[in-house]
Structures are given as C-alpha cells and as structure tokens.
Design goal:
One of its GO terms (cellular component) is type II protein secretion system complex. Residues 59-184 form the General secretion pathway GspH domain. The protein is built from 1 helix and 8 strands. It is of the alpha+beta class and 196 residues long. The chain has a domain at 59-193: 3-Layer(bab) Sandwich (minor pseudopilin epsh fold). A 4-stranded antiparallel beta sheet has the order 3-2-1-5, with helices on one face. A 4-stranded antiparallel beta sheet has the order 4-6-7-8, covered by helices on one side.
Length: 196
C-alpha cells in the first residue's frame, strides 16, 4: 500500500537538475571566427577585383546602349543625333574624359554642340570615381550618327575608333573597348591595357 509508482522519466540521471542546453561553447565560436577571418582575408582581393570588373562592364554596357540609341534615333529621324561627353548633363564638354558623363541629343544644326532648343534624348551621370572612359582620335569628344546609320564628323568625314573603359590603374588592367567601325556599328570587346 505504501508503494508509489515512479513517474515517467524520473529514472533519468538529470533528476533534480536541468539538462544542458544545446549550443556552442565559447571555444567553438572563437575557432569558427578565426577560420572565417582567415578565409575572408584571402577572399577580399578577389572580391574587390570582381566588383571593379562589374563597374567597368556596367559602364561599357551603358555607353553601348546609348550609342545604339543614338544610331537608332538618327535613322528614325533621318538626321544627325549626337552622343557627347558632358559634365553638366545639358551641354557637351570640351575637356576631360567620358567618365564625367554624357548626353544624347538631336543635333538640328549639325554643329556637334547642343543648343538649348535641341531635344535632349538621354543623360548619363558621372561614372564611379575609379572608372576611366576615353575615346581615341575622332571619338575623343563626341560620336555623331546621321540618317543612314553611319557615323560622321561635323565636317562630313567618317568617324571610327575606340572608346576604352577601364579601372584606374598604374599597371596592366582588364578593360572593355567599344569599337565603332566605318559603317557606324558599335561592338564591345574585352582587352587588357598597359595602364589606365
């Protein structure tokens, strides 16, 4: 009569004490942090290079898209449409590189400069601080398309050359080049430049 039946689980070794909480010890957490720090320090240069490559590629694609827009609008309007470097987003710049930004406009008077009355079709702001964009020869200041889709200088001569996008560097670095051929068709190619 005086016997009691033990309750379920009362035969456990933890009777009267709380069982240990699942988790990690401080030593385990510190070991994981140390390994993570080593891995992060080895991966950071690669991540920086990847981010720089993405910025260069994005800038080249932005300019290529605007050059294709310029060409398309020239064909559609049967007249001169110009992309030019611009620091203020409303008029063409004579100095500096294309990294300061550019505009696309209808060049109604065929002078290669935007007047206040000429429609502004597109505006691109300045590129990231470490990205450079330069044009060689006749592409240093502007690219002008005429009604048949070819490029022409203000004086009437054909316009061809290369616009180079790269990350600022004293040594060799990966770059993208937008090559415009004699018929005015732009294309992008990967290359390496000696410095940027």
């Amino acid at each position: 009569m005086g016997r009691t039946t033990p309750r379920s689980g009362s035969g456990r070794a933890w009777q009267g004490r709380r069982p240990p909480e699942p988790g990690f010890t401080l030593v385990e957490v510190l070991a994981v942090l140390a390994v993570s720090a080593v891995l992060a320090s080895t991966a950071m240069p690669s991540l920086r290079a990847l981010a720089a490559s993405v910025r260069v590629s994005a800038a080249a694609n932005d300019l290529l898209g605007d050059l294709l827009l310029t060409r398309s609008e020239a064909i559609h309007r049967r007249g001169r449409v110009v992309s030019c470097k611009s620091s203020n987003g409303s008029s063409c710049a004579d100095a500096g590189g294309w990294q300061q930004g550019w505009i696309v406009f209808v060049d109604g008077d065929d002078d290669g400069q935007r007047d206040a009355s000429e429609p502004l079709l597109q505006r691109q702001g300045a590129l990231p601080a470490d990205v450079r964009l330069t044009g060689n020869g006749s592409l240093a200041r502007y690219v002008a398309y005429v009604g048949n889709g070819s490029t022409r200088l203000v004086g009437g001569g054909f316009q061809a050359g290369t616009l180079t996008v790269c990350r600022e560097s004293a040594g060799p670095t990966a770059a993208r080049q937008i090559v415009i051929n004699a018929s005015g068709r732009p294309r992008v190619q990967k290359t390496t430049v000696g410095s940027c």
